[in-house]
Amino acid sequence: MWGGRFEGRLDPRLARFTSSLPVDIRLLTYDLRTSLAHARMLARQGIVPPQAGARVVEGLREMLLEAEAGTFPVDAQVEDVHTLTEGELFRRVGDAAGWLHTARSRNDQVVTAFRLWAKEAAVSTVGAVVRAQEALLRLVERDGHLLLPAYTHLQRAQPVLLGHHLLAYVWMLARDGRRLRRAYEAADVLPLGSGAAAGVSFPVDREAVARMLGFSHISENSLDATGDRDFAVELVDALALLMTHLSRWAEEAVLWSTEEFGFLLLTDAVATGSSIMPQKRNPDAAELIRGRWGRVAGNQMALLGVLKGLPLGYQRDLQEDKVLAFEAADVALETLEALAVLLAEARFRPERMRAALAAGFITATEVSDFLVRRGIPFRQAHKLAGQVVRHAEARGKTLADLAPEEWAALLPDLDAAALAQLQSAVTPEAAVEAKDVPGGTAPGQVRTAAVRAAAEVGRLREWAAAADAAEQRVREALRAPA
After folding, report:
1. Catalytic residue IDs
2. CATH topology of domain 119-197+217-349+450-473
């Protein structure tokens, strides 16, 4: 591939060190699609002889079909996937293959294939995000009416509906889906035609190649295009934040499945046992979701480290970008699939949730809110509510346990009717009903939020289906005979 510049061969140790085939073999179909579109353009523009162009196009088309079927022959000794495909093309069509690399470099070739992969990875991940959201919405519909404590600082805070809690994750994942869409858009730019650094000296039709490969735009600057990996960073960034959200859910699943919480029962399908303790039901899958965040977040930082300080244009450092992006995408997709299984098997324990509501003075805020509605400034009301809590705590009582005469002594400015209203207001059900504002946990608000969330999930589902269908049409057109 390097031609006549070298007389000797690269030291075998460095050949092994610089080889990228074990990683970039994953780009095989994308590289062949890139080459096929490029070859068709060269032939149509009259840049290569018609007969040679036709042989190259047909040879590449056959190779693409084999690669998609998993029957493409792989020579593990070659340097990279580009060398692999070009060598196989020479084997099939002879010297005509030598015309293929006209008006391109491996620099713009590899980043084009990488961008094609990134677009498809974003679409696949959005699809998995949607499936996780749909599983959450099914739980909202089935169990969303249950009450449990919300927590701040991991201390019981206020009563909420389980549906409100679960919808929080639906909205987190919606933001992840939007970020993945933006990562798709960042990758949706064709760099092919930039050559090694300065552009190419032939009348290439970059817009035609973009249409053949399904890109919406072409790059504006050849030096930027060959060294640009912003799209990969944006994809891995989106995946890292997605994994952060999944790890938060996993941590709650681990906590909720403990005897200390007991809100979540692990079925046999998602629990594992102990090699020594026969009573154990361990949340291994949730723990691995939590633990695998580190691999994606680590790759995020490693990718930025590869790019830091690179001068303009292509540098061999960029060989290291793909292994980081590939692993991040694989881990995120596998994690979303595991999450979907865990959500499908989720069995909540209402009695444990209810018991947790009975302790910790979880409706104390309702006391201060009630007093505010009676005309008492909030800070004074907050102090009075704190005194009620201190009184009950000192006597080992809950707010529900306080007798009417205790309430009267603690809040002497309230008459009997007001005290009766207050005692009704500090039940968990009343506390939830009171949060009747958009974004709040009142049943009506949660029902409305669930409808809005389902619509958002539907839009994300439609986008993923449309993007996937568009990619399928592009692939089918490339497979077709010239």
Report:
1. 153, 274
2. Fumarase C; Chain A, domain 2 (1.20.200)
